[in-house]
Design goal:
Layout (H helix, E strand, L loop, with lengths): L5 E5 L4 H13 L2 E8 L18 H14 L3 E5 L1 H17 L6 H20 L4 E3 L4 E6 L2 E6 L16 H4 L2 E2 L7 H10 L3 H5 L14 H8 L3 H5 L3 E4 L4 E4 L23 E6 L4 E5 L5 E12 L9 E7 L7 E8 L2 E11 L6 E6 L2 E12 L2
Parallel strand pairs: 1-2, 1-4, 2-3, 4-7, 8-11
Antiparallel strand pairs: 5-6, 8-9, 10-11, 12-15, 12-17, 13-14, 13-16, 14-15, 16-17
C-alpha cells in the first residue's frame, strides 16, 4: 500500500487525464485507471465515425498508458444511467424551450458519483480527473478554484460537485499550463498523446447536429412542432419556422428568414410555438434567476448580498454582479447588461478565483 494512498483516476484516453494518472503514479500514489463508457454513437443514428472519450481507440489509449506504467485499468459501463439522466435531460430541455449543457450535468451528477461508487468497491481513498482546476479545503468547506492556465480553466464545469465528492477529489493539473503537460508527455515518450486531436463536441452528438439528434430521438417531432411563427418583439408575425426546439437564444445563422437587417433569436415560447426575433441590443438583459443551486465556498448566502463575477456560459469571461439568495433560487443583478442569457445554461458565481456556487438559469429580465 502506498503511503500516499490509493487513487482511482478517470482516464478518457486523452493527454490531460493520461498525464494526471502519470503524475500521481510518479508522486507515489497507488493508481488505478478507469475509463467510463457513456455512449454508443451508432445508437444515435449518426453517420460520423465514433470519436472522443467513448470510442474504442480512446479506451485502448488509456489502457496502454496503464500497461506501460504497470497499474490496473478498468472499463466502467455507465451507458444506462448516462442515457437516463444526461440524454433524457438534454432532450427534455430543448422540448421545454431551453438550451441544455449536458457536459456539466454529466461531470457533476454522473461521472463523479460513478467514480466514487467504484472507488469504494476498489478500496480507493481518492478519485482524480484531468480537469484544469484546483480544489482545497478552507475551514469546513471544500472549494474549487480556477486553474492557473486561463485558456484551459475548467472550473465552470465543476460547480455542481458535492462537498462529499470534493473531499476525496484530486485535480493534478490545476497548477500547470497546457504547454507544460505537452512537454511532460513528450519527455516521457507519449508522442501519440501530444499529437492526438482533442474533441470539444458533445460525446453523443459528435457531428454537432443536435437538431438531427432530436429528430431521431423523438418520433414525429418535426410534425409536432413545425409551422410556428417567427414574431418580433411587438408581436408582428414575420415568417414561419421549423419548430421552437430547433433554435437557441442568440442564434443568428440558419434562421431561414431575411428581413433586410441582422436579427437574432431573443426568446423561445414553447406554449405558443413562437420564436421571437430582434436586433442585437434586444439580447441584452441585466438580471436573471438561477435555481437548483449547489453552494461551494459558503454553505448558503441567505440574508447576504455578495459581489461576484458571474459566468453565464463556458467561454464567458464573467461579469460583475450582485447575487442575493431568495429561498431556493439566486437573484443575480449584473452591473452592466450582458448578451444572450440563455435558460438551461449554467451560471457560476466567482469570488476572485474561487467558485462560490452555481445553478441553472431559469429566466432573465431587465431591472
Amino acid at each position: 500500500m502506498s503511503r500516499k494512498g490509493k487513487v482511482l483516476v478517470a482516464m478518457s484516453g486523452g493527454i490531460d487525464s493520461s498525464l494526471a494518472a502519470v503524475m500521481l503514479h510518479e508522486e507515489g500514489y497507488e493508481v488505478i485507471g478507469m475509463t467510463m463508457k457513456t455512449w454508443d454513437y451508432a445508437s444515435s443514428g449518426g453517420s460520423k465515425k465514433e470519436t472522443g472519450c467513448c470510442s474504442l481507440d480512446s479506451i485502448n489509449d488509456a489502457r496502454t498508458i496503464a500497461v506501460n506504467l504497470g497499474f490496473p485499468h478498468y472499463i466502467l459501463d455507465i451507458r444506462s444511467e448516462f442515457g437516463d439522466s444526461v440524454i433524457d435531460h438534454f432532450t427534455n430541455e430543448y422540448l421545454d424551450g431551453r438550451t441544455p449543457n449536458p457536459c456539466v450535468l454529466c461531470n457533476t451528477h454522473i461521472k463523479w458519483d460513478a467514480l466514487l461508487r467504484r472507488a469504494d468497491k476498489l478500496g480507493c481513498d481518492f478519485i482524480a480527473t484531468g480537469h484544469y482546476a484546483q480544489v482545497r479545503q478552507e475551514n469546513s468547506r471544500f472549494v474549487i478554484s480556477k486553474g492557473i492556465d486561463d485558456s484551459k480553466d475548467q472550473s465552470y464545469a465543476l460547480w455542481g460537485v458535492s462537498q462529499q465528492s470534493l473531499s476525496r477529489t484530486i485535480l493534478p493539473l490545476g497548477k500547470l499550463y497546457k504547454s507544460q503537460i505537452r512537454q511532460m508527455a513528450t519527455e516521457r515518450g507519449f508522442v501519440d498523446l501530444v499529437n492526438k486531436s482533442e474533441s470539444y463536441e458533445i460525446c453523443f452528438v459528435p457531428d454537432n447536429d443536435y437538431r438531427g439528434f432530436l429528430k431521431r430521438r423523438v418520433e414525429g417531432l418535426e410534425e409536432k412542432v413545425a409551422g410556428g411563427n417567427f414574431v418580433l418583439e411587438n408581436g408582428a408575425v414575420v415568417g414561419k419556422h421549423l419548430g421552437y426546439p430547433f433554435y437557441t437564444i442568440g442564434q443568428r445563422k440558419g434562421l431561414g428568414i431575411a428581413l433586410g437587417y441582422p436579427v437574432f433569436v431573443t426568446e423561445i415560447r414553447k406554449a405558443s410555438n413562437e420564436v421571437v426575433l430582434g436586433v442585437e441590443k434586444d439580447l441584452l438583459r441585466n438580471a436573471m434567476y438561477v435555481k437548483q443551486l449547489n453552494m461551494m465556498k459558503y454553505e448558503n448566502l441567505r440574508g447576504v448580498q455578495l459581489e461576484t463575477s458571474t459566468k453565464i456560459r463556458y467561454n464567458d469571461d464573467g461579469t460583475p454582479a450582485l447575487i442575493t439568495q431568495e429561498g431556493d433560487q439566486m437573484r443575480v443583478v449584473f452591473h452592466e447588461p450582458v448578451k444572450a442569457i440563455t435558460p438551461g445554461q449554467a451560471a457560476v458565481f466567482y469570488e476572485g478565483d474561487d467558485v462560490v456556487g452555481g445553478g441553472w438559469i431559469t429566466s432573465s429580465f431587465m431591472v
